[in-house]
UniProtKB/TrEMBL annotation:
InterPro entries: 4Fe4S_Fe-S-bd, 4Fe4S_Fe_S_CS. It comes from the Bacteria. Residues 1-30 form the 4Fe-4S ferredoxin-type domain. Its cofactor is [4Fe-4S] cluster. This is Ferredoxin-like protein in nif region. Keywords: 4Fe-4S, Electron transport, Iron, Iron-sulfur, Metal-binding, Nitrogen fixation, Transport. Pfam families: Fer4_10. GO terms for molecular function: 4 iron, 4 sulfur cluster binding; metal ion binding. The lineage of its organism: Bacteria, Pseudomonadati, Pseudomonadota, Alphaproteobacteria, Hyphomicrobiales. Transmembrane segments: none annotated.
Length: 64
């Protein structure tokens, strides 16, 4: 499973892109997206998912 970004809630601050250890997040068009093929849910790297922990808007980075 991977995480996804709820586009309607995203403020496009970019914090998640730089915190993602698997480089799964990128800005496409006018929104940030998580590539499900690259997302590891931070398993083996962090206890918590970094996108969700740095996002200023609660429940914007969520399990897909």
């Amino acid at each position: 499973m991977a995480y996804k970004i709820i586009a309607s809630q995203c403020t496009q601050c970019g914090a998640c892109e730089f915190e993602c250890p698997s480089s799964a997040i990128e800005y496409k068009g006018e929104k940030y997206v998580i590539d499900p093929d690259k997302c590891t849910e931070c398993k083996g790297a962090f206890e918590l998912q970094q996108c969700a922990s740095v996002c200023p808007v609660p429940k914007t980075c969520v399990p897909a």
